Amino acid sequence: MSSVLVYTSIMFTTIVLLALYGVVANAQIIQGPILGDITDTSLKMWVRTSEPQQVHVVLKDTYLLFNTTTKTEFDFTATIQLTGLEPDTTYQYYVNEQHKDEWYFKTRPANDTTAKIAFGSCANEKEGSSKVWNRMNESNIDALVLLGDTPYIDTTDLAVQRRRYKEFAAVPAFAKLVAHTPVYSTWDDHDFGRNDTDGNLEGKENSRQAFSEYRPNPSVGENDEGIYTKFIVGPVEVFLLDTRWFARTEISKNGIPTLLGKQQWEWLEKSLKDSTAPFKILACGMIFNGATRPGKTDHWGDYPAEYFRLLSILKRNAIRGVSLVSGDIHWSRVIKHDTKSKIGYDLVEFITSPIHEKLIPLANAKHEGDLFSVGEINSFILLEATHNDEVKSLQLTITNAAGKNLFTYTLSDQ
Length: 414
Description:
The protein has helices at residues 3-20, 127-138, 158-169, 172-178, 189-192, 204-214, 261-274, 304-316, 340-343, and strands at 29-38, 43-49, 54-59, 65-69, 77-82, 90-95, 104-106, 114-120, 143-146, 183-185, 229-233, 236-240, 279-283, 322-326, 332-336, 348-351, 370-374, 379-387, 392-400, 405-411. By secondary structure, the protein is α+β, with helices and mostly antiparallel strands. The chain has two domains: 3-106, Immunoglobulin-like; 114-411, Alkaline phosphatase D (PhoD) (Purple Acid Phosphatase, chain A, domain 2), CATH 3.60.21.70. The strands form four sheets. A seven-stranded mixed sheet has the order 11-12-13-14-16-15-17, with helices on one face. Helix 2 (127-138) packs parallel to helix 4 and helix 3 runs parallel beside helix 6 (204-214). The longest helix is centred in the N-terminal third of the chain and has 18 residues, at 3-20. The radius of gyration is 21 Å and the shape is globular. The termini are far apart.
């Protein structure tokens, strides 16, 4: 049967089904689709409509049909779970009979041995950020990780939170990229609600609600708290930490304020112990060190007990293959942490910031583990990994919107 006949048959079946259930067949999709977590057999897809509607997704040249309903209480957003897909297969998709050239995706191979992931932070809706989205698109990345300040919001007012996510998602270059590239997100201070803030911020529940509505992550924290999550691409498992929700909301018996919080620490230790990935990335918006501009307190350097707790978890569980990725400071750096005597190898931290044009030279504070430092606008990190019988490599490159590689670091086996 030709693809035209197959698609015609699918559309006819779809229309009949929708009619049976009393659904309007031409619901207007006003934002998205945005792809979320993708595996060898499944995909999450996010959309937003102009009013509460049922949304249906059809995969071209298949008889697969998926439905969901957008609701007023979620700002007319919904995430659709597509299942029963074939591994290592490219699908074009239609959403409520609409289709664009960039509406396609490819499932992961069943034997998944490679990964190409872009990490970025601090973006806005201006042309410079769009150049970065275009460069990522041209790089054929497998996934995009947003490390926060994506977008800038600076309030916990729910209406403003929602509006800013909509404005950010409406940028054509970003919309084109995430229509066929899975996006994973955490927040930092500005999208959480205020510059350099912590978990005592009033109204943070509104920020979490908006994030949950507009970011199709694999999960959103636990027990209605936090937004931490994890995902796997090939040989790489990324643990996206939430360094805002719990910060300074709990005090240990020694009077030390928390950063991640008891709940998230338990999740992280269990997740690391359970992980079989050769390469493990701990990522968050906040830098894992204290070398930054004077007076800044939102960094792991201001939570030394929490940092040493991380090292303790890695040591007592013999967790190997860990690297760090962070953002926020409007300066890009690569720093080697002197941890070999503590955990058996040196942690290397890759800081990427900004995607937009604002630099903060004072963030280039001296660190004894400096390997590279640059103030480069419109920049991001490109991670490339391979792990099979012949090759075992993890390479991270700081690159810019023009495609110039500013610094590459290859991690040896740990």
